[in-house]
Design brief:
The chain is mainly α and about 400 residues long. Helices cover about 70% and strands about 0% of the residues. It has 19 helices and no strands. It is elongated.
């Protein structure tokens, strides 16, 4: 038999966002919603000693609603809250847990947590806390900040929502194209925070990539006809499929061309391709779909030599029409170098500005210079990359390159 504490933890993880979403929709206060759910979990520890409810999430939802009402009753400004209390009692006794209402609540919560009025780091933290169900300690550990700092960040975000009157709703059809990219950006930031840290062996941080995929899958269920949601899912699955081949035994990063492709997860690649196929059927290409198509080109190649670099260079050219950033320009230059020759790529790289503090700019330049036979200039580029590297795995990789050039 499952221990009550284990069941509560499992429900809290899986259904946290659902329960909080329903409470927040009704009471209009994220802090109250989360506090009430905590009260319900404590009550469950005392009530589930002999038998666990058939639907634990529903039990927690109903109990949390009553706990929220109790909290409102204890506030000093009872008169202002009285109408909410009365309505809440009717709501508790009469409203069924309708599946459509639940799913709509989830979507409201996601768009509220990712509202553009909040700072980007607050959107990420609040989404992981309220929708993902991660503890404040886990989020703080993932982003390498003290737990009190992360707690303050989350509290400030909740109060910003309350004090600024940020609406707890899904944007209408007219506003959705403007708001959805912000939500997807938050999810991709979460994914990259986990994905890039996975190469340094930090398991807790790499778990963020799985949480980002789960959040995107929730949005796909709620908005099944949005091609960019599908494109983001495809992109993350393609990346995640290669996670096991990205580092060597010493923890140094392995470039794509040198990865053992037998270690790539073919099931994840098939899942990614399925999402990409669904997206392309919508005939509305966007940046996530294009990036996923680039990843598909890599995944389709059994060996590095079989990679269709002409197609990848063309896709990056298309991506630049959506995202005209120096990083996209750098990736385009590298693809052109692969499709044509290193010197052509170097000429394109020399035209890029604004990446002096970007480690991959200098390492890419070093690789192309080495390919051209300019050893001294390549060493300078790699040494410069070492001065701006931020992770141990990056430094190990760069030291390897320097060692290869000097040996």
């Amino acid at each position: 038999m499952t221990e009550p504490s284990d069941a509560i933890e499992a429900v809290f993880r899986e259904e946290h966002g659902l329960v909080v979403a329903g409470l927040a929709r009704y009471f209009g206060d994220l802090e109250l919603a989360e506090d009430a759910l905590q009260d319900a979990c404590i009550a469950a520890l005392g009530s589930w000693t002999e038998e666990i409810p058939r639907n634990p999430a529903a039990w927690l939802t109903t109990t949390a609603r009553r706990k929220a009402v109790d909290r409102i009753r204890r506030t000093r400004n009872l008169q202002r809250k009285y109408a909410v209390i009365a309505q809440s009692e009717d709501y508790i006794s009469n409203e069924a847990l309708d599946e459509d209402v639940i799913e709509d609540d989830r979507l409201r919560l996601i768009f509220t947590c990712c509202h553009p009025a909040l700072m980007p780091d607050a959107r990420v933290a609040l989404t992981l806390k309220t929708v993902g169900g991660l503890t404040t300690g886990e989020i703080a550990s993932a982003f390498l900040v003290p737990e009190p700092t992360m707690a303050q960040r989350i509290v400030r975000a909740k109060r910003k929502i309350r004090d600024a009157g940020i609406p707890y709703r899904v944007p209408g059809d007219a506003d959705l194209p403007e708001r959805l990219p912000g939500v997807l950006s938050v999810i991709y930031l979460i994914f990259n925070e986990g994905y890039t840290s996975s190469s340094s062996g930090e398991v807790r941080r790499s778990a963020l990539s799985a949480e980002a995929i789960r959040l995107a899958e929730i949005i796909d269920r709620l908005l099944p006809h949005e091609p960019e949601v599908l494109g983001l899912l495809a992109l993350m699955y393609f990346h995640d499929a290669r996670a096991g081949a990205r580092v060597d035994g010493g923890g140094a990063a392995i470039l794509l061309d040198h990865q053992d492709r037998t270690l790539w997860d073919r099931n994840q690649i098939a899942t990614a391709q399925g999402y990409l196929d669904r997206a392309l059927l919508r005939e509305a290409p966007g940046p996530y779909q294009i990036q996923a198509a680039i990843s598909a080109c890599h995944s389709d190649a059994a060996t590095p030599q079989e990679t269709d670099w002409d197609q990848i260079a063309a896709l990056y050219e298309s991506l630049r029409r959506h995202i005209d950033s120096p990083v996209v320009g750098l990736n385009h230059a590298v693809a052109v170098a692969k499709a044509t020759d290193a010197r052509t790529g170097l000429r394109l790289i020399d035209e890029i500005s604004g990446l002096d503090d970007y480690v991959y700019y200098h390492s890419a330049k070093g690789a192309l210079l080495a390919e051209c036979g300019d050893r001294d200039a390549a060493l300078v580029a790699y040494e410069t990359a070492l001065t701006v590297a931020t992770g141990d795995h990056q430094r190990r990789f760069l030291h390897q390159r320097v060692s290869q050039l000097t040996s």
